Structure prediction request, 295 residues.
Amino acid sequence: MSIEEITGKSLSPRCMQCMLDKYLDACPEDTPWDVRADYMREVLRAVGEGSLIKTAPEISDELSGVLREMFGITRDYTQVKWHFNELVLGLEDQVRQRIVASDDPLGLAIRCAIVGNLIDFGPTGNVSEELLLKLVADAGGMELDEASVSDLKERIASARTIAYLTDNCGEVVFDKLLIEQITRTNPKAQVTAIVRGFPTSNDATMEDARQVGLDTVARVIDNGSDVAGTVPSLVNAETLTALRDSDLVISKGLANYETLSGRGTNVCFLFLCKCQLYMDLFEVPLYTGLVVNGV
Prediction:
């Protein structure tokens, strides 16, 4: 397979199948058959038409809109987000001490930030706290492509401006710790952290940024969009300026990878491999950490 299956103009059959599996039966069980049929036609239309011109996050946003308009179904992640923010905040001091005491503080902070990408309710609908704690404990031993890590460290050391695209709740605590190490490594770097403009799934918003204190280590802005990822045509001017003018863009998560891959060499993507498509693309096991330089 090739990277075009994820980032190309035509959505891959596997991504289409995943969306259909997730949304075709998402309406209430007691829905009359004729209304259910209308809903299914809307799902098929959105996936069929969108697969030719949109990324997976954009289509998912449209499908969530169909559920909301037809059945009033909007999943509220407020409590989930608060819980995972507080869970990881409870680990913050311990993880920070490990990072500071490490022989390679920046390298360990990068690994911890990647581990945090596990907190994603999109792929499976749930997150194992037990697995999260295990990955955090084992973060120092995470195997990454050392050439890519070294390149990222060099770019951090020389950058004057850095845009940091966040992804999920809870994960932003690890992002905070990485930004701390970035500014220790390069005190001259001005870091702008970017969160979602409006709630979408368990993605981090300005409310989450304030809850975890992200605004104490970086300037924080929202992207003006409620679509997962960073779709250039849908985000606000402030975000576009940050993406265009920053010496380095650190991009967290699969949705940001899907929407921004191929859009610039100043981008470095950090994420966990969380589904079969990515396992096949990068030829790695599930939950492998990846550092991917943009093109």
